[in-house]
Write a structure and sequence with these properties.
single chain; 264 residues; alpha/beta; Rossmann fold; six-stranded mixed sheet; three-stranded antiparallel sheet; globular
């Protein structure tokens, strides 16, 4: 059985209507956005999947659908055999999502109070929380004194680190990362990427979807590459296959894939 299955999935966001349209009951403005357009793929085993695409390609929409935050307008999604329409809470328990625009924290609380709150939502005991954050503090290079500071006093890089901790604290099987190393220092980025690939995927058997505009980073750590463009899934293949057994760079492979689609 596939761990993740997308079959002909589409997601449309309706156009913003102005007051005149609303008063005239004109709901057909033609400005709807097809964020994802009839995409299909299967994932059978643990892997780190690099998700590439220009702005507006549908990358964040894909992550939200995988996490159960959005439901498709058409097509079917199966996560470990579960249907998001019927098993939304179960899917949210097995996924962890880090969005580029992080708004879920309570800024007047300390970092510790925030993490304890999110951990309590998953029913985690204090010993489990302490064990997991200790490992993640080491990976991300977080000084323990930072834990007691109010969240709104932290730097953008430190906020991103606690966003990663919140994403991983409940030990999800599917990890959805939208630019996880953005605002991180170079050493923290290297350490986290090594942790994601070597520990989370290879040792723990997780599935990671990793969105990034840093193509060298993606090429170095990913098992598979997914290329989206204007809501279409252009390519989903092994990284080595896409890069022609390392004879061309991921940058060139990405540009070629998008250009070939544009010229069709």
């Amino acid at each position: 059985m596939e761990k993740i299955n997308f079959k002909s999935v589409s997601k449309i966001f309706p156009a913003n209507l102005n007051l005149t349209d609303l008063l005239n009951l004109n709901f057909k403005t033609g400005g709807d956005t097809k964020a994802l357009d009839d995409i299909s793929f299967d994932i059978h085993k643990s892997s780190l999947i690099g998700v590439l695409g220009k702005n507006g390609a549908g990358k964040t929409t894909l992550l939200r659908l995988l996490s159960g935050l959005l439901i498709p307008d058409s097509g079917k999604i199966s996560i470990f055999g579960l249907n998001p329409l019927k098993n939304n809470l179960e899917i949210k328990k097995t996924t962890g999502i880090l969005l580029n625009q992080e708004r879920s924290f309570y800024w007047r609380l300390t970092a510790k109070e925030n993490i304890n709150f999110f951990a309590s939502m998953h029913g985690l005991d204090k010993r489990t929380v302490q064990k997991r954050i200790s490992r993640l503090f080491d990976v991300l290079g977080i000084d323990k004194t930072i834990y007691e500071k109010r969240f709104d006093s932290l730097s953008s890089g430190m906020m991103k680190k606690f966003g990663i901790i919140r994403t991983l604290i409940h030990n999800p099987d599917i990890i959805l990362l939208d630019e996880p190393t953005k605002n991180l220092d170079y050493e923290s980025s290297l350490n986290f990427n090594a942790f994601a690939r070597n520990y989370l995927v290879k040792e723990q058997g997780k599935i990671i979807f990793y969105v990034s505009h840093e193509l060298r980073e993606i090429e170095a750590i990913s098992d598979k590459i997914m290329i989206l463009n204007k809501g279409k899934l252009l390519k989903f293949s092994d990284t080595s296959e896409l890069c022609a057994n390392q004879k061309i760079s991921l940058m060139n492979a990405f540009v070629k894939t998008v250009n070939d689609n544009h010229n069709e």
